[in-house]
Amino acid sequence: MTGLPLGLAKLQAYNWHKWVGLAVLALAGARILWRRRHPPPALPAAVTGWQAKAAPIVHWTLLALLIALPISGWAMSSAAGISIVWFGILRLPDLVPGDRALFEALKTTHYGLSRLLIGVLILHVAAVLYHDLWRRDGVLRRMWPLGGS
């Protein structure tokens, strides 16, 4: 499976894609650790009940996708028989053995997760803009580190 003819520029783009994805994975892990020690401030009183219930669901869905997407890509590379050397320094272990059928399944999964992430991000940004520009209820300030202070 590694016999694919790729140009040097495309190969480098794939490497950067993987490196950034794994950096996102590390940052998502750090974000989860941060949140365990620093709970979010309360939502403004103007936020409706269903919005207050949806907010943590969207938040945790984003974090789950920021973990699942890089792991699926890492596993996909492993299944393709292509090792990842993070930023050209740290060789990462293969997550799964090389297997063409598994590669194809992981490729489909990775693509689907990427589209789901795009959709949830669009929903999240739309909600933030709604709250900041229309409702002006302080939700955006709440999202900044230390509650916008």
Summarize the model shown.
This protein is mostly helical. It has helices at residues 8-37, 49-79, 100-135, 139-143; strands at 85-86, 90-91.
Tell me what the structure shows.
This protein is 68% helix and 3% strand. The model has no long low-confidence stretch (mean pLDDT 88). Strand 1 and strand 2 form a beta hairpin. It has a two-stranded antiparallel ribbon with strand order 1-2. Helix 1 crosses helix 2 and helix 2 packs antiparallel against helix 3. It is mainly α and 149 residues long. The protein has one domain. The protein has four helices and two strands, in the order H-H-E-E-H-H.
Question: How do the helices and strands follow one another from N- to C-terminus?
Answer: HHEEHH
Strand sequence of the main sheet, in spatial order? 1-2
Mean pLDDT: 88
- Considering DSSP H and I runs of 4 or more, what fraction of the residues is helical? 55-70%
Gross morphology is: elongated
Q: Terminal Cα separation, in Å? A: 52 Å
Please report the total strand number as a whole number.
2
| Gyration radius, in Å | 19 Å
What percent of residues are in strands?
Answer: under 5%
Structural class: mainly alpha
Total discrete domains = 1
Number of helices: 4
List low-confidence stretches: none
The profile of the biggest β sheet is:
2 strands, antiparallel
